Structure to design on (282 residues):
């Protein structure tokens, strides 16, 4: 564990468990005895998750040559790691104690960033696209946990942030004594996900990403830092923002991306995203 992760002080009893189906999926994939049929059996135990996995598998984002009708076929074509990621994404949608407008927005924000991170990693050939997906998916898991603990308070903080431009990390720290980045890293460590993924959650808002020592974590954090703006630019979390200066982001500076290249990447992603928006976010 990195020194910054060790410094996070939070009551472990308050941390949520990993969703059961995600736990079973990780365990099975880690086992040498896993097969497409066994994996499909686990996923099919939750019809809602099964439907979401098949919807996304059949989207143009994954470029299937033919329609995928069964989970076992999806697993063979997509691979176990991609399936794990889609199950993880579908699982966190069900983590909320209730599911209203704020919870929908948090889910859409996470899913959009996950897809954007995977797209950027593939397009730029920076890092592992599947790890980038997980990194983007969980970079705001701390927001989900805080919202579950006190939804009325968290809704007020989001309103303050959007109306007044108040810094979200500072608002959270003042109210909860921990911000979503710190809490997210603690949750991911508690779930025994990699230090790399936890580092992305902890550091994706940092102004200087070059200080991240591990090169894989540094690159994935840069990717997530850029993809974090995509939900705002697509009107996912709040009103559309068409004045985002992607070139000025720490992630863009670290990866040496200029304004023209960033605009090209975003336009390409947004075209695929809008084409499959209902499948991604339903």
């Amino acid at each position: 564990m990195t020194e910054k992760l060790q410094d996070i002080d939070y009551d472990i009893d308050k941390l949520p468990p990993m969703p059961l189906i995600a736990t079973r999926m990780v365990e099975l994939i880690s086992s040498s005895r896993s097969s497409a049929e066994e994996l499909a059996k686990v996923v099919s135990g939750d019809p809602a998750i099964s439907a979401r996995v098949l919807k996304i598998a059949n989207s143009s984002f994954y470029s299937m040559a033919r329609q995928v009708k069964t989970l076992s076929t999806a697993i063979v074509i997509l691979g176990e790691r991609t399936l794990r990621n889609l199950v993880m994404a579908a699982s966190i949608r069900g983590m909320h104690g209730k599911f209203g407008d704020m919870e929908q927005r948090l889910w859409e924000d996470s899913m959009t960033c996950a897809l954007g991170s995977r797209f950027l990693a593939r397009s730029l050939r920076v890092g592992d696209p599947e790890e980038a997906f997980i990194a983007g998916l969980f970079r705001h898991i701390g927001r989900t946990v805080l919202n579950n603990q006190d939804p009325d308070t968290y809704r007020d903080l989001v309103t303050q942030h959007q109306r007044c431009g108040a810094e979200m990390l500072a608002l959270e720290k003042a109210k909860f004594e921990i911000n979503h980045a710190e809490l997210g890293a603690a949750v991911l460590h508690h779930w025994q996900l990699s230090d790399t993924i936890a580092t992305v959650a902890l550091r994706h808002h940092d102004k200087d990403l070059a200080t991240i020592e591990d090169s894989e974590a540094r690159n994935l954090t840069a990717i997530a830092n850029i993809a974090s703006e995509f939900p705002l630019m697509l009107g996912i979390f709040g009103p559309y923002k068409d004045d985002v200066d992607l070139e000025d982001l720490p992630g863009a500076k670290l990866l040496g991306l200029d304004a023209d290249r960033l605009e090209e990447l975003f336009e390409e992603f947004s075209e695929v995203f809008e084409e499959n928006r209902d499948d991604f976010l339903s």
Summary: The chain is about 65% helix and 0% strand. The chain has a mean pLDDT of 86.
